[in-house]
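Reviewer comment 2.1 asked that we show a complete input and output for one of the modelled complexes. We chose the magnesium ion case, as it is the one discussed in the main text.
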Amino acid sequence: MKIITSSEKETKQLASAITEFIDEGTTIVLIGDLGAGKTTFVKGMAQTLNIKKTIKSPTFTLMNTYKIKHYGLKRFCHIDAYRINEESLKGIGALDFLQDNNTLSVIEWGNKVKKLIPKNSWFITIKHKTENKREFTIKLPK
Ligand SMILES: Nc1ncnc2c1ncn2[C@@H]1O[C@H](COP(=O)(O)OP(=O)(O)O)[C@@H](O)[C@H]1O
Ligand SMILES: [Mg+2]
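Response of the prediction step:
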């Protein structure tokens, strides 16, 4: 499925709409270059999840978690895998979240830690088309 957004706001709306439907623990893998809009997408997810804290890119913390109440989901886990490999991701305890049915996880640069991505994940690839246009290719879990 391909969708084009023409502004940061539209990307947040797309992310919010997708998140509305997610009612169980799963992982969203975001793939795209720097500035593609991965963190912007996560901010849109946070709106639907009613997260009041500002979403900050976990570039240095690697992983941020937030308490949520959304269907049966209790936790939102935001990972940035740009600087890490599979071993260090395991080392920070990320598997506990990725495999937890009550946690919705999103991984920026998830393509860098392929071996740890659960089977039922969503894959969202973002292509930078023009200054404000982004093309989203969404692959639903099988
Ligand atoms: N359609 C769009 N969707 C998302 N971001 C956009 C769009 N158009 C412009 N932008 C801008 O692109 C940048 C995306 O940054 P960010 O979300 O941090 O990217 P990433 O996390 O992929 O590195 C932001 O400055 C945002 O305002
Ligand atoms: Mg980012």
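The helical segments are 8-20, 38-48, 86-91, 94-98. We note this here for comparison with the apo prediction described in Section 3.2.
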